[in-house]
Amino acid sequence: MAIQSMRTVIIGVILALAGASLGAQTLGNGLILILAGPPGSGKTTQAEYIKKEFRIPFVSAATALKQARGWMKTSKESRAAMAGGAMLSDEGTSELMIEYIKRQDFKRGFVLDGYPATKGQAQALEQFAKELALLPPVVILLEVPDEVVRQRMADRKRADDTPANIEARIKEYHEESTALLAAYPAVRLMRVDATKPPSEVYKQIKSLLKAGN
Known about the structure:
By secondary structure, this protein is an alpha/beta fold. It is 54% helix and 12% strand. It has a single domain, classed as 3-Layer(aba) Sandwich (Rossmann fold), CATH 3.40.50.300. α3 packs across α5 and α7 crosses α8. It starts with a helix and ends with a helix.
């Protein structure tokens, strides 16, 4: 069976198990959608579209790691890293993210932005899904060429969007995405052309979900 048709079948099974129905405006019971893409690809915008229409939580890694209430329960190493502003290990990041997710109304499913970012974090999410009887995560990859990313980030005119920072973030994205996509089989990956206007990008996402239903 071709990868594309196999993907449709498997995502269809996942959505069917979740009781997904676009008409019912719900992703059902326990479907995890991971939004991935380079900076400027519109992940937050698409997550908000999904959150609004399907009424499921949108979990931003940046927000979750700032607001996680259970961080005092983490390991001594993770607490020290947070206090010093250092990068958390995969284990520490996953610990905080999962603690945060548990505090949301996650049982019907949720959308993730910024997590998992590594293979180790993806494995932790898979284990969390199994333990909580959630369905296997599905990745929605928002594809944008590097030159478009550069232009979009420059157009935002943010103080930290210097040419050097833009190049560093693009490089970081490619490193993270390579590791992340290696953790997920092609049949659980939806590729979306994110060079189009946000509303058209969302139509593609809905179409892919509907095709799998």
